[in-house]
Task: structure prediction
Amino acid sequence: MSTYGYSRRVHKKNNGKKIAAIIFGVAVIAFVIVGGKTYFMNKKVNDTKEALTRVEEETIKLQEEIEALGGQIEGLEKESEKLESILWRFEPIVIPDSMK
Result:
């Protein structure tokens, strides 16, 4: 009888080891899946942040260009007003149809 009890204890111990190994394996697989998913999500977030900063920098550059062009437009409008005032002093020249 002692051998029967001993082998039963060994069998239970082996079953416990098998269950522990299965639980450990499942935990490792879950850890790998969650870790991989987290890694790829962080990668996507970082890529998105980089794209946003790049777009923000481009918008800032474009706004600066718009402001510079706005100053040029004002200068050109003043010049066109000066030229119009000069041109109004002269009478328009009518080109006859025969010269066209």
